[in-house]
Amino acid sequence: NGTIEWYDKRTRDMLYTYRVPTPPYLHPDMMANVGDMRNTGIELALSLDAIRTSDFFWNTSVTLAHNKNEITSLSDDVYTTSRIMVGDAWVRGGSGRTTHVVEEGYPVGQFYGPEFIRIDDEGKYVFRDKDGKEVNSVTAEDYTYIGSAQPDLTFGWSNRFNYKNWDFSFFLRGTLGNKVLNMGRMTYGHPGYLIGANALNDPLIYQLKVVPEYSSLYVEDASHVRLDNTSLGYSFATEGINWLEQARIYVTGQNLFVLTSYKGLDPEVDENRNNGLAPGVEDREYYPKARTFSVGVTLTF
């Protein structure tokens, strides 16, 4: 069996702090319900008993989801803005740069910054400016759209197997097409961290000799597949034991592995950074999810 669902969700009068003139207003900042957002997408779920015999059973289920997020309005007749710059890419020894833009026609989580080309022989960044020229430094006018934290596709695949008294299950899930800003790689990519604090090989590979700067170099593809959980169990025969209805022993594992090209600790990060307007950032203090194992016994009386 299966289901297909399509949705079109519209959110109106979102709250944000706008800059206003003084006078007539007494304060240059004012909170107002102005912004509008739209989410459209499709969700697919399929479940199938692939094999069913007297001794063996296999059920498999697949879920697929695609969502398109778009800011449809940021202004009205009173409160106006063309774009809102959010996020912070501060590193020691440098000045902070915003990381995302909230702009009409673009999704929440739109990365906005310099386009990286290479590191030159002097150990300096080479960026592409607004005129398409290769330069060592850029201004906000040279920023461009360098990826989105919104995935093109999210998916899950679960399987359950039973063979006589044995049971086994696993669940894979992941995303395709989303980006993550690797703040740890950006921060510790300088040779000054090489001794003592740095556990990366970037300083040896890139030979960077300037203070790290936010750019598309550190906005990485975070597409991934994660083995979220798996379980193996055995159910004992309880015929002849009047006081015991069922007995099962099992072992489970959580977060067993991740397949990804992302160079950070974990491609899944907290999405509530900057009140949810700057998602897809792995902070320097981020701790990866733990891999856990457990053994248990289930008794039913």
Automatic annotation (TrEMBL):
The UniProt record lists the keyword Membrane: yes
InterPro entries in the cross-refs: TonB-dep_rcpt-like
Keyword Phosphoprotein included in the entry's annotation: no
Localization, UniProt: Cell outer membrane
PROSITE patterns: TONB_DEPENDENT_REC_3 (PS52016)
GO CC terms: cell outer membrane
SUPFAM superfamilies: Porins
Chief location: membrane
Membrane protein topology class: Multi-pass membrane protein
Keywords: Cell outer membrane, Membrane, Transmembrane, Transmembrane beta strand, Transport
Signal peptide bounds: none
Family membership noted in the UniProt record: Belongs to the TonB-dependent receptor family.
Protein name: SusC/RagA family TonB-linked outer membrane protein
Organism (species): Proteiniphilum acetatigenes
